[in-house]
Design goal:
Radius of gyration: 13 Å
Number of domains: 1
Structural class: alpha/beta
CATH topology: Rossmann fold
CATH class: Alpha Beta
Shape: globular
Protein name: Recombinase family protein
Organism: Promicromonospora aerolata
Number of helices: 4
Helix content: 40-55%
Number of strands: 4
Order of helices and strands: EHEHEHEH
InterPro entries: Resolv_N, Resolvase-like_N_sf
CATH superfamily: Resolvase, N-terminal catalytic domain
Strand content: 15-25%
Strand order of the largest sheet: 2-1-3-4
Distance between the termini: 31 Å
CATH architecture: 3-Layer(aba) Sandwich
Oligomer: single chain
Largest sheet: 4 strands, parallel
Length: 125
């Protein structure tokens, strides 16, 4: 199983990427996985997210960890579609702020989004 971390910051802040990656690594370890790849974007276009999608479609990534759902998209409502696209490519997605529960499909978001919003603000500090 090839695990990856995806981090996103609104500006050039390596410390924020480091904090997010650390949260991803901790969750991966809890699931007995090692992160082999890291994709990191900052403000604006998300070329690394596009590369992650490409690698997922090619079978190079089977698990993705993010620190929180809002790191996947510019808006939380877009996150379910990104997760669905990754899931369709055979990738399991986990958010560190949602512990070890796999984010499998849109039906998990009724209770996920209220948890994700407050927790994500703590990870950005």
């Amino acid at each position: 199983m090839s695990a990856a971390a995806y981090t996103y910051t609104a500006g050039p802040t390596p410390e924020a990427h480091d904090r997010q990656r650390s949260a991803c690594v901790a969750l991966a370890r809890a699931l007995h996985l090692d992160i082999a790849r890291t994709y990191s974007d900052q403000a604006g276009a998300r070329p690394e997210l596009a590369r992650l999608h490409s690698d997922a479609s090619a079978g190079r990534v089977s698990v993705v960890f993010v620190a929180s759902l809002d790191r996947l998209s510019c808006t939380l409502p877009a996150a379910p579609q990104i997760i669905a696209d990754l899931h369709d490519a055979g990738v399991n997605v986990y958010a560190a702020n949602y512990e070890t529960r796999q984010l499998a499909d849109v039906t998990t978001f009724a209770d996920t989004l209220p948890v994700a919003i407050p927790a994500s603000s703590r990870l950005r500090r």
